[in-house]
Amino acid sequence: MHTRPASSEPYWMVRELVAIGVFAALIKVSSILVALIGGGMNPLTLVLKNLLFTSLLVVLLYKVPKPGTLLLFNVVSILMSMLLMGGGFFLLPAMLLAGLAAEGLIVLLGGYSRGWTVLAGVACYDLLFKACSLGISWIFVREQPELLWISAVFVAIGYLGALLGLPAGSRFVKELRHAGIVHE
Amino acid sequence: MQASFMNRTMGNGLAYRLDARAKMSISLTASLGVIILHSPQSLGLLLAASLAYGLSLNRPKPLLLCHAFLAVMWSVAFGFMHLMQTLNPNPVPTELSRLLVPFLRSAVMVNVILVMALSTRIQTVLTTLKALRLHRCIAIPAAVMIRFIPSFLSDVRQVSEALKTRGYPITPRFVLSHPLLATRLLIVPLVFRALRASDELGIAAELKGLGNLGSVRAFRPPRFETRDWMASATALACIAAAVILQVFTGGPRGGMF
Amino acid sequence: MLVFDNVTYTYPNAGTPAVRDISLSVSAGEIVLCTGPSGCGKSTLIRLANGLCPHFFRGRLQGRTALAGKDTVSLTLQDISRTVGTLFQDPESQFFALTVEDELAFAHEWRGTSPDETLTRVRSSAASFGLDSIMGASVLDLSEGQKQKVALAAIISLDPAVIVLDEPSANLDPEATLALAAELRRLRDAGMAILVVDHRLYWLDGVVDRVVVMNDGCIVAQGDFDLLRDAAFREAWGLRSDRVPDPRTTLTCPANDCDALQAQGLCFAHKDGPELFRDASFSLPAGVTGLLGPNGTGKTTLARLLTGLNQIQAGKLIFRQRQMTPADILRRSSIVLQNTDHQLHMHTVRAELALAAAPYGAESREIVAELLNRFNLSALAQRHPQSLSGGEKQRLVIACGMAKDPEVLILDEPTSGLDGLNMNLVARAIRDAANRGTVVLLISHDLELLTLTCNAALHLPLCGTTDNLESTCSPVS
Fold first, then answer.
1. Which of A10, A124, B52, C394 is 20 to 30 Å from C204 by CA-CA measure?
2. Nearest by CB to C345, which of B150, B188, B221?
3. Strands C162-166 and C84-87, how do they pair?
4. What is the domain partition of chain C in residue ranges?
5. How far C365 CA lies from chain B's nearest CA (Å)?
6. Where exactly are the structural domains of chain A?
7. Lowest mean pLDDT among A36-40, B129-133, B236-240, C153-157
């Protein structure tokens, strides 16, 4: 009987990097889709967009349950925003900060092997990122800071959707197990 | 069925001929500029420059539409703000320049981002990505993301058409009245497709021997031409001029500045 | 070059081996065909050849798989990839780039090959496979045959000594299949060792040097192609036919019929594209009508026009002697598209059928039960649709199409990648629908399916007035 020979492997297997790229594309497309169908600033579509974001992110973190996945996903997403749209430069530090904090939280709570730690990490990431984004928005509207309240309302609605996406993502992972697509 | 924007007929303005890295540097410069600047005059100068840049697309209609949308959004925002002021027992008097500055910032960014979004073909993004010589752990997922955005957009169209033939047309009315069902009908096939695609492409990558490599060596690296250098330098010059104008004219102070 | 020596392999968490005691070799300058019913272990054989088993899928391996004398267990996947190239059933699934040129260059760029060397190899493989004229084209815009060529060219440019092909003819039309056969002969003559796994057999007559038949993880027969000429043998192992007459040369125009779906004066051209239909008139009676024609002549477009997915630019549609809009026709029809994954949305087979039957309200439970029974899906009712095999999914989407008891049923490539048993099941379902009086329009490259099901055929392109209907309907010789 033969076993697989021990060999030094890089931290990221190429199949994991491919999975991150595929899901980054899927999340981007789903966001475009919701905006196209329902409009960008409609409260329902804001909720839906964020719900899809976190639920698909949860699926990705089950598919590639490894420290750094969340961070890498965010870096790639922002890089694409820069390449495709020329925007998002100032979101990069916010994203890195939020990603690092979320990764740290997941590790502290027990790692990627536990489902609820992933959900907590995604919730933490989204909250921190949205808070930092509001901070960046403040820089843009600092002459009239009251305008930030309007952004804050939209961000709050979005975060509600993000929180709803967590159990949705968890449920979806169960369905994927039922379908035999992901395994324990 | 193919993603329509893959075959989008590209225009012949300057914006289409610039290297993506030049356009990125212009975007970054503009982003820095709108943050540093806070006087209406200097931001007005930047707006004029960015508008000229936007018009180099030779597509005034999307530009006009975006600015119209921006104007509506800001009008709504100001309306809410006015309402808040009305409800405030101690209202703070508002200067026009304070209201104008955030709007000008958005308008500058809209122009710059629109140029990038409308003049960039997704095929060239891959070329640009290779030219950046990023580490494989960023470059591979980025390349895969570029590869699959058009595929998924095509899949969305096919899934929507399949649903239409089954009696479930994906219209705004249907989505808003049956959000959960619409989400399941549209998103579930995409997720399964994504998972299968990721497994298959991951296997293909291993079978092509891409498992343990460094960064990529592009065989046709894009070159920075004279026009790219000129465009980037012009952007910097505009920012410099705007900063000088700000020094002379001053402007409203806000927040920590 | 490729040797399987008493190989038994078990996937992780599987109770039984996927393949048992496989002993087989493929030499340089030889083409070997491996065939058998779905689930017989053919795919596992490919994975053993290209090292995915055990390097990627892990699992337990007994025996020895050797490449050029070296045990694959002692090699890394990267090492194996320098010797073995693999062509997938769906070549698009292995594309990394968006243009043909970029795809040919991709692996070389990522392996750190010098730009000059990459350019040389790209040009050489493009010339070899006749791809020079489409180098700038998007890979998503290519025909299936072109995609196949690009994938093969990309593999060959890496200079493998062995090529394994997984159901390469599944998505190809007969002409592209013959072109692929010629390509394989050329590669064999150049000294390559080639292992082909396929359900379709007819195109490999005169191409392969040896045939291996598998069932339930074991080799049950080996020999030359004559092994497959025995009809009883093929039926015993669920194989497709070794010889398939081309029904495209014999199927005639459908006869006109009062209850037919008729088009009169149909005109359509894609934006910035060539005119596909100009004043075209035809009749589709109850029964199965094949929609035939070369790529690009508008087969799928016609299906889309009939159901309103594309707008007719001129002309009218008449069904059962009443003029109708495409939206009217859509209400009375079902379309079963090629990609089954785009048509499955729910968490169980039963729920999927219920979704399709939903317009029937209170009676939908009976409809679902009847469909489960009719399409042999009762045992799978609680399974997730995405966990089904290819043949089961195909039966399910056809069952969903039949849920509304359509008067018109359009099927687009319903049997690509299916083995003989499942192809026959689908053919039976199509004939049953036709026998119930449904107008069935079948778009397919599968010659066996066309032979088993079609009463008539509409040959594209269609351009001409009603007076010329006879001439546009003459069979292709």
1. C394
2. B188
3. parallel
4. 2-236, 247-472
5. 18
6. 14-178
7. A36-40
Yes or no, beta carbons of A84 and B203 under 8 Å apart:
no
User: ipTM value of the model?
Assistant: 0.89
Spell out which residues of chain A touch residue B38, defining contact as CB-CB under 8 Å: 142-143
pLDDT of residue B103: 87
Residue C279 CA from chain centroid, whole number: 32
Interface probe, candidates A54, A59, A83, chain B, greatest B C-beta count within 10 A: A83
Helix (H) or strand (E) segment spanning residue B226: helix B226-249
CATH no. of C247-472 = 3.40.50.300
Provide the shortest C-alpha distance from residue B144 to chain C (in Å): 7
Consecutive H or E run containing C457: strand C456-459
Q: Are residues B141 and B30 in the same domain?
A: no
- Please check whether residue B216 lies inside any domain of the structure: no
pLDDT tens column, A91-128:
888 889 999 999 999 999 998 888 899 999 999 999 99
Q: Do A1 and C55 touch (CB under 8 A)?
A: no
* pLDDT one-digit tens code per residue, B74-123: 888 778 777 877 887 776 666 677 778 888 998 999 999 889 888 887 77
Contact between B179 and B162 (Cβ < 8 Å): no
Q: Are residues B188 and B245 in the same domain?
A: no
Q: Using alpha carbons, list the distances in angstroms from residue C55 to C50, C72, C81, C179, C253.
A: 10, 9, 12, 34, 54
DSSP letter at A2 equals: B
The pLDDT value recorded for residue B198 is 93
Taking the CA of residue A9 and the nearest CA in chain B, the distance in Å comes to 8
Measured between beta carbons, the chain A residues lying within 8 angstroms of B197 are 22
Give which of B10, B148, B207 to mutate to test C binding, by max C Cβ within 10 Å.
B207
As its CATH architecture, domain C2-236 has: 3-Layer(aba) Sandwich (3.40)
How do C30-35 and C2-10 pair as beta strands? unpaired
Pull the structure tokens for residue C164.
Answer: 């394994």
Q: Is A184 on the interface with C (CB under 8 A)?
A: no
**Averaged over C262-271, what is the pLDDT?**
88
Contacts of A3 in chain C (CB under 8 A): 54
- One domain, residues B234 and B203: no
pLDDT per residue as tens digits for the range A175-184: 998 888 776 5
Q: Structure tokens of C189?
A: 């003559």
* pTM score, whole prediction: 0.88
> Choosing among C98, C338, C389, which should be mutated to test the B contact, i.e. which has the most B CBs within 10 A?
C98
